[in-house]
Specification:
- The structure is a single chain.
- The protein has helices spanning 5-15, 29-41, 45-67, 76-84, 108-124, 158-174, 190-203, 216-222, 224-231, 236-239, 245-254, 261-266, 286-310; strands at residues 89-94, 127-129, 179-184, 210-213, 240-242, 277-279.
- Helix 1 runs antiparallel to helix 2 and helix 9 (224-231) runs antiparallel to helix 13 (286-310).
- It has two domains: 5-66; 69-310, 3-Layer(aba) Sandwich (Rossmann fold), CATH 3.40.50.10310.
- It is 52% helix and 8% strand.
């Protein structure tokens, strides 16, 4: 006996929820597609809804990845298309893995520079953010100097560091970026950034590609941010140069989970032997830190724009 397929299809159509006689949608492309699938293939309305939901989720995920400013979130074809569409600035965030006293986690610089680079790229509108460079010069190993005297700090030589920056810049030039911006969250390698930019700009003088060592990013933390803190009620003796109030407040504004606030409140005054240089982090706050976030993002964004304006068209 040949099954009555046509009859079953009519039954599926008329018995599907939301499509029963008297309650059947009569207009709209989605409704027409749904009725056609039910009539021709015996699909239920529920299966169609699930299918559309899955497709919409995939589309949303693809859009989210493409909307991200992080290079790592792109596929190679998405990146190619964004560069072709005019996203030709790449920000290279440079952090470092080092001690920051007993109250702040070792990844402070890496977390901070990634967060701030994302904000800067968002303001620029035509920029992406490269993966954070977290291996940087931090002193010698034998004998241990500077932060290398504390567990968890990782160092490489200035020569290797400059080679790393140079190789990254050459990679970005190869793939179509025109402005390569170096931003460094640590004071110890600012000169290395400038050396790399100067060398590559001299080599590429006949091409439209330029490297910008945006030293303003770090300079703001040592100048305008300090002035802002003083005007907001911080004391000069608290601010410090490393792991003091200024440094710790920035981290509280960006990612408070990186700061051990319970220890901060209870600890006696910390000094160089604890990895805190010239300040007191006890009164650190996210409110103080936000002053620095705004200054760094706005000041660095404007410096990058000014650099771009000065380049030959």
């Amino acid at each position: 006996m040949i099954p009555n397929i046509r009859g079953r299809r009519r039954h599926a159509e008329t018995s599907a929820p939301g499509l029963a006689p008297g309650n059947r949608p009569t207009s709209g492309p989605v409704q027409r597609i749904a009725r056609r699938l039910i009539a021709r293939h015996g699909f239920t309305l529920a299966s169609i809804v699930v299918g559309l939901w899955v497709l919409s989720g995939l589309a949303s995920a693809a859009h989210a990845a493409n909307a991200s400013v992080f290079l790592e979130d792109q596929t190679w074809t998405e990146l190619r298309d964004r560069i072709s569409a005019g996203t030709t600035t790449i920000i290279v965030p440079i952090g470092g893995t080092e001690q920051s006293g007993p109250d702040m986690a070792l990844g402070k610089h890496n977390m901070r520079v990634k967060f701030l680079a994302e904000k800067i790229a968002g303001q620029l509108g035509n920029a992406l953010v490269a993966p954070v460079i977290s291996y940087v010069p931090e002193g010698t190993i034998d004998p241990p100097t500077s932060h290398m005297r504390f567990p968890g700090t990782i160092t490489i030589s200035d020569k290797i560091f400059e080679q790393l920056l140079e190789s990254a810049a050459r990679s970005f030039r190869l793939h179509g970026f025109k402005t390569i911006v170096l931003i460094g969250d640590h004071g110890g390698y600012q000169a290395d950034e400038r050396h790399v930019a100067d060398r590559l700009n001299a080599e590429w003088s006949k091409s439209p590609v330029r490297v910008f060592a945006a030293l303003q990013y770090y300079q703001i933390t040592q100048g305008a941010y300090v002035d802002k803190l003083l005007s907001a009620g911080a004391r000069q003796s608290e601010i410090g140069t490393h792991a003091g109030l200024a440094d710790t407040s920035l981290m509280l504004a960006i990612d408070p989970s990186m700061v051990r606030k319970d220890r901060l409140a209870a600890a006696p005054k910390l000094g160089a032997g604890d990895g805190v240089y010239g300040g007191d982090p006890t009164r650190s706050s996210a409110e103080f830190g936000q002053l620095g976030v705004d200054l760094i993002v706005n000041g660095t964004t404007e410096a990058i724009r000014e650099f771009a304006r000065q380049q030959p068209k």
